[in-house]
């Protein structure tokens, strides 16, 4: 872990202050109080210099990050299984003057700092980096970082790259070539013929992720944005995973939003993860942008809690978590809980993840008619997706 001498600790109106309070609320709710000092140092280390900057106002977003629906450059998520919880942080490194290229350079610098302090492995990242980082990148982002935290275990790091950095039309071949280089050529046909069965215009590749490890269990993950999809479309895609159980997708949609599509507001996102030695996905994750399909966060919390009780997950801890994390009434709008996702894990069974926004750059808007929830600052966000640990 980074030492406290390398990380500023003074309290001012900076990103680090709000994020520190939010992290504390999460640790308290998840019985991770003893880990909080360590996690706080890690969070500040990951934020780096921009964590010490004054937080902008809602009307002065410095750069429209795709991470948050309101362009917040970081978010938290919490994954629940029957046995334990996992706390995660996703962030986009911010340059002194954020732009697509400047943030890319800041993210590469973060790679270097991580390698100095933690036993990460960048060999797979280096093997495919030229595919994702052209000299004149396009798209909404270049490189994100995430960390997964479990009690009494070392942190696990991963990166997310933009397959559309050379243009949307090249994204599919960029990812397929990356899979070939990483020894996963057999997975290409699975993705092309089974997952993206409606074609790349409808099942669009939008993220590519790597665990920063060279262990056999290290994952390569491919994300799709499914435009105007129904649960039946996605059941067919998810059948590519040996762990998928027929009816899972339709049941989750019905529990969360009361229908099975088509999803014509913000699209559903999926993630298919692969590991060494298998062309079939190790797991498949379904990401529902629930804030765009619910009237407010109170309704979202009730739906997620009911799903968790059905699957014998700790709904009471989840409810406590939301109450501790939220800085406003849950009835004031939808947005604190941006996504809900599920997947079946080979070791832990059903896994439910709630995604939590710091809401840096928006005021909540009541979504009384279930129409678009957000006053969007930038059009890039309309086609955004979600990433998972």
Written account of the structure:
The chain is α+β, with helices and mostly antiparallel strands and about 400 residues long. The chain has one domain (about 5-385). Helices cover about 30% and strands about 20% of the residues. The protein has 10 helices and 10 strands. Residues about 5-10 and about 365-385 have low confidence and may be disordered.
Features:
disordered N terminus; 10-stranded antiparallel β-barrel; 389 residues; alpha+beta
Form type: globular
Class inferred from helices and paired strands: alpha+beta
The number of distinct helices, counting runs of at least 4 residues, comes to 10
What is the H-and-E element order? HHEEHHEEHHEEHHEEHHEE
**What is the count of distinct domains?**
1
Rg, Å, rounded: 19 Å
Question: Beta-sheet strand percentage?
Answer: 15-25%
Helix content: 25-40%
């Amino acid at each position: 872990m980074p030492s406290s001498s390398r990380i500023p600790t003074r309290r001012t109106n900076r990103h680090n202050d709000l994020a520190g309070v939010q992290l504390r609320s999460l640790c308290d709710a998840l019985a991770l109080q003893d880990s909080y000092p360590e996690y706080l140092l890690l969070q500040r280390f990951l934020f780096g210099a921009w964590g010490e900057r004054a937080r902008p106002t809602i009307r002065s977003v410095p750069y429209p990050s795709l991470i948050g629906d309101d362009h917040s450059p970081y978010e938290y998520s919490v994954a629940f299984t029957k046995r334990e919880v996992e706390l995660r942080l996703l962030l986009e490194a911010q340059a002194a003057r954020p732009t697509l290229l400047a943030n890319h350079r800041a993210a590469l610098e973060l790679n270097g700092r991580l390698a100095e302090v933690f036993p990460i492995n960048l060999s797979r990242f280096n093997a495919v980096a030229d595919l994702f980082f052209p000299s004149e990148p396009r798209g909404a982002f270049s490189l994100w970082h995430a960390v997964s935290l479990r009690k009494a275990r070392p942190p696990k790091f991963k990166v997310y790259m933009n397959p559309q950095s050379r243009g949307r039309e090249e994204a599919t071949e960029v990812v397929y070539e990356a899979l070939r280089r990483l020894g996963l050529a057999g997975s290409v046909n699975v993705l092309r013929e089974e997952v993206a069965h409606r074609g790349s215009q409808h099942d669009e590749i939008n993220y590519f992720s790597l665990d920063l490890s060279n262990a056999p269990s290290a994952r390569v993950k491919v994300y799709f944005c499914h435009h105007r999809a129904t649960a039946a479309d996605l059941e067919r895609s998810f059948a590519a995973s040996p762990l998928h159980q027929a009816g899972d997708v339709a049941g989750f949609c019905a529990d969360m939003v009361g229908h099975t599509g088509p999803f014509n507001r913000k699209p559903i996102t999926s993630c298919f993860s692969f590991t060494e030695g298998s062309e079939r996905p190790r797991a498949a994750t379904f990401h529902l942008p629930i804030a765009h399909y619910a009237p407010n966060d109170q309704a979202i919390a009730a739906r997620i809690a009911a799903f968790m009780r059905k699957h014998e997950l700790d709904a009471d801890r989840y409810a406590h978590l939301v109450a501790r994390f939220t800085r406003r009434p849950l009835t004031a709008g939808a947005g604190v809980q941006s996504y809900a996702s599920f997947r079946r894990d080979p070791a832990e069974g059903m896994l439910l993840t709630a995604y939590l926004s710091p809401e840096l750059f928006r005021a909540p808007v009541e979504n009384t008619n279930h129409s678009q929830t957000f006053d969007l600052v930038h059009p890039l966000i309309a086609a955004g997706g979600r990433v998972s640990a």
